[in-house]
Design a protein that fits this description.
The chain is an alpha/beta fold. Helix content is about 20%, strand content about 25%. Strand 7, helix 3 and strand 8 (about 155-160) form a beta-alpha-beta unit. The longest helix has 17 residues, at about 30-45. The structure holds citrulline. Citrulline binds near residues 83, 247, 248, 250 and 251.
């Protein structure tokens, strides 16, 4: 069960956020704000408190708050984002996390280690960590050492094609996992009940489970149907403007 989420309002500067898909065009800021409102409503429908942080204009990608911290049952870990333009975003989250965790339960990834929360997938007390262009070997070493100090565990999953681990694979509890592309055949995930995401709906591999419900992005009917057929109540919300910046549903919140 999750009780809390933290989100950060998108900044006007998001139109200059990092993207691997410039062909999708720049986000429409007014629409992105509306979609953020709907995202917050979707979270609330799942019976969870939402802490809404103000926009940070100096950081175009700062609405993707998932990348700057990993929150576990036992501790919170402030990351060290590998994207240079995002590296300073962590300062803005420390104080907020301090409202939920005492100082001795707040840990930090430090240089030369880099790690972004989008590369971390929680499955109970185990954390899969994608080794990506943003998360390096030293970041993973520090992260796993922190987890082990707190009675948790972690393992590395190398990625080749996607930005973050959770761009392509997401655990939705009850042993069910949405998998796309390079993750379909990874031995790391062999023991899970895999829900295969078709290539044309790959963006929707990034869904989030909250307290028995699954939030699915609007416009991906095959994934929506598969999640319903797996027995979940589905909440649909549109994230088209965040997709233009490679951002999915999970990127927009911390859930704990
Ligand atoms: C970035 O490239 O950092 C942002 N434009 C997108 C971050 C997406 N975050 C995530 O997958 N957790």
């Amino acid at each position: 069960m999750f009780k809390n989420t933290i989100v950060r309002r998108p900044a006007k500067s998001m139109i200059d956020g990092i993207t691997s898909a410039p062909e999708l065009g720049k986000p429409d800021y007014a629409l992105a704000l509306k979609q953020h409102d709907s995202y917050i409503e979707a979270l609330k429908k799942c019976g969870i408190e939402v802490t809404v942080l103000p926009a940070l204009e100096e950081y175009p990608d700062s609405c993707f708050v998932e990348d700057v911290a990993v929150i576990t049952r036992k501790c919170a870990i402030i990351t060290n984002p590998g994207a240079e333009s995002r590296n300073g975003e962590t300062a803005g989250i420390r104080e907020t996390i301090g409202r939920f965790f005492p100082a001795e339960k707040i840990e930090f990834i430090t240089a030369p280690g880099t790690l972004e929360g989008g590369d971390v997938m929680m499955v109970g007390d185990h954390f899969y960590v994608g080794r990506s262009a943003r998360t390096n070997e030293e970041g993973i070493r520090q992260f796993v050492a922190i987890l082990e100090r707190h009675g948790l565990s972690g393992s590395e999953v190398p990625l080749e094609h996607v930005l973050h681990l959770k761009t392509g694979v997401n655990y939705i509890e009850d042993n069910n996992m949405l998998v796309s592309g390079e993750f379909i055949d990874k031995p790391d995930f062999a023991k899970f009940n895999k829900i295969l995401v078709p290539e044309e709906e790959a963006y929707a591999a990034n869904c989030i489970w909250i307290n028995g419900k699954v939030i699915v992005p609007a416009g991906y009917p095959a994934v929506e149907k598969a999640v319903r057929e797996a027995g979940y109540e589905v909440v649909v919300t549109d994230t088209s403007e965040y997709r233009k910046l490679d951002g999915g549903l999970s990127c927009l919140s911390l859930r704990f």
